[in-house]
Amino acid sequence: MSIAQNVAHYLQEIGSGNPFGEKITLVAATKTRTADEINEAIAAGITDIGENKVQEFRDKYALVHGANRHFIGHLQTNKVKYLIGKTLLIQSLDRDELLNELDVRSQRAGVVTDVLIEVNIGSELSKSGYPLSEAYAAYERAHARQGVRVRGFMAMLPLSQDTVLLGALADQMRALYERARAQDDDICHLSMGMSGDWRLCVAHGANMIRIGTALFGARAYPAP
Ligand SMILES: *Cc1c(COP(=O)(O)O)cnc(C)c1O
Questions:
Q1: Residue whose CA is closest, atom 12 of ligand 1?
Q2: How far is the CA of 108 from the centre of ligand 1 (A)?
Q3: pLDDT 10s digits, 119-155
Q4: How far is the CA of 72 from the centre of ligand 1 (A)?
Q5: I need a labelling partner for 19 at 20 to 30 A (CA). Which of 59, 64, 98, 117 fits?
Q6: What is the pLDDT of residue 221?
Q7: Which residue, judged by its Cα, is nearest atom 11 of ligand 1?
Q8: DSSP assignments along 142-201, one per residue
Q9: 222: confidence class by pLDDT, cuts 50, 70, 90
Q10: Residue 88: helix, strand or coil by DSSP?
């Protein structure tokens, strides 16, 4: 199947929304993809794209047209300056040091940067994000800053076949999202779900999914 066919298929499949009656935003995860491939996906209806690496974000910035830009990967503080004013959403606010840098740089530039609080929902050493137990307090600290605006939460579920466990973790994310949304109208995104687990995530309340492989095919990483 071509990229365009995959995009059409996905847009149709998510068109009915999630069980909470919310529209689902499909973010194409574009790491390792060429600008041509990304533009093909946009021409087929993709409205939002997410990069993982600042270098790739910058390299493709002027070559890709007509989509909202997300940053979805681990973000080093010394690279924040390259993203300020260029993103719809930075989905990977995973530590206070990064919050501080985003806040200071955004205020200096006279912009407000929209962010999601990243949660390490599976408590995995290999993943970044606030522990679930600290995530609400992290949200409150970010909410108090003038330079950022929290729009919700992001998580990556662990790699597991245990759908009961995964469903329970996704439910915990949805509960966190609901708790913040109950008193903050800016909260509107629960970003959770990749090629392998997005159906489960949507069934448990995700309203934003980040899909790479299923749209573009398997990634071929250059040798390290
Ligand atoms: C690569 C990536 C995705 C998409 O993963 P696929 O399995 O290729 O769909 C989603 N979120 C993040 C943060 C990613 O880095």
A1: 72
A2: 31
A3: 999 999 999 999 999 999 999 999 999 999 999 999 9
A4: 8
A5: 117
A6: 74
A7: 210
A8: HHT-SSEEEEEEEE---S-S-HHHHHHHHHHHHHHHHHHHTT-TT--EEEE--TTTHHHH
A9: low
A10: coil
Beta strands in the chain (DSSP E): 25-29, 48-51, 68-71, 89-93, 113-119, 148-155, 189-192, 208-211
Say if CB 28 and CB 215 are below 8 A apart.
yes
- Report which ligand 1 atom has the smallest distance to the Cα of 215: 9
- For domain 3-216, the question of CATH label 3.20.20.10 is answered with yes
Q: Residues 80, 98: contact at Cβ < 8 Å?
A: yes
Phi, psi of 65 (to 5 degrees): -130, 140
What are 73-108's pLDDT values in tens digits?
A: 999 999 999 999 999 999 999 999 999 999 999 999
Cα atoms in the Cβ-side hemisphere of radius 13 Å centred on 34: 5
Interval between CA 183 and ligand 1 midpoint (Å) = 30
Residue partners of 81: CB distance under 8 A and separation at least 6: 105
